[in-house]
Write a structure and sequence with these properties.
3-stranded parallel β-sheet, 6-stranded parallel β-sheet, binds zinc ion, alpha/beta, TIM Barrel
């Protein structure tokens, strides 16, 4: 079962305990993780192949995936960690794919009630119509991947869709920074053009915008609906090649109401708990951690409520 890419399928109880102790210490009812990947099996295997091949998606980095269990097991592991709500980040790399992914995501959300129903989009004719359909079908969050999709997020074809999402108040997790590898349209400039047109669009900049952390902080400081997710930022893995500038810590502290926990589970080359410890060691305090790891997302997605019993 275990080749060099695989860890034992049975996640040790100690690891589950470590994650749970983190949020229990903070007095939280659990975690909300806005950046986790669930995709049709065929697509997911393709993505894992990319990571294995050290392809352009990883910028040639060695990237052993930690969690390769079956889909149901992966969802269950998040529950055992105490993740009360998570997402199914999926994204097309070519036209004609987004609508199909969205169809799969409707079904996934139906059979996975703790997953925030996720949808995606691509600059193509008909995008506004299928984005509207997805919102009407109950999509709570969208995912856009500027590097993999290789499109300009300010593409004319997308503007009506952004307008619709801004109007509906549906957040969009967008991979738009130039990490781990740059793309033709990554970086803050195209996003600034989108926001100039739709200043109330609820963009959640994935990976804290790495490596353009500070430029994306600037956009969040300027536009109050712009948020950032922590996905992979501050970890040993990321710090080794895209370190967070320590001088920007005060800005990160001030943006505490706009930062959301994201992890990239299951596509991560280290255990889940490491992301949490990476946030903790920033030393921004328990209030900051509570907001980032649960409260901000609970407010944004309206998932606040009494703690659930059991695991
Ligand atoms: Zn991701």
């Amino acid at each position: 079962m275990n080749d060099h890419h695989t860890v034992p399928v049975d996640t040790p109880a100690a690891e589950v305990e470590e994650v749970r102790r983190f949020w229990e210490r903070l007095g939280l009812p659990g975690l909300i993780d806005v950046h986790t990947h669930f995709m049709p099996e065929r697509v997911h295997s393709k993505v894992w192949e990319y990571f294995d091949a050290l392809g352009p998606m990883t910028g040639g980095l060695e990237w052993p995936i930690t969690y390769r269990q079956e889909e149901a097991e992966r969802a269950d592991l998040l529950r055992r960690f105490g993740v009360r709500a998570f997402t199914a980040m999926l994204y097309p790399h070519k036209p004609g794919m987004a609508r199909w992914l969205n169809g799969w995501a409707v079904d996934f959300a139906r059979r996975t009630p703790d997953c925030l129903h996720t949808a995606t989009l691509y600059p193509e004719p008909g995008v506004e119509a299928y984005v509207r359909e997805a919102v009407e079908a109950g999509a709570r969050v969208f995912k856009a991947h500027v590097q993999v999709g290789a499109y300009d997020p300010a593409d004319e074809l997308l503007l009506p869709a952004w307008g619709l999402l801004a109007e509906a108040g549906v957040p969009v997790v967008i991979h738009c920074g130039s990490g781990p590898a740059p793309g033709k349209h990554t970086g803050p400039e195209p996003i600034a053009r989108v926001l100039a047109r739709h200043p109330r669009l609820r963009l959640i900049v994935a990976h804290m915008g790495m490596p353009e952390f500070e430029e994306f902080f600037g956009l969040a400081e300027r536009y109050r609906e712009v948020r950032l997710d922590t996905t992979m930022a501050f970890t040993d893995f990321t710090e080794s090649f895209m370190p967070f500038p320590r001088t920007a810590l005060p800005r990160l502290a001030d943006l505490g109401d706009r930062v959301l926990l994201g992890t990239d589970f299951p596509n991560i080359p280290y255990p889940y708990a490491h992301q949490l410890h990476a946030l903790e060691r920033l030393d921004l305090g328990a209030d900051w951690l509570r907001a980032v790891c649960h409260d901000n997302a609970a407010e944004l997605f309206g998932t606040a409520g009494p703690a659930q019993d059991g695991v």
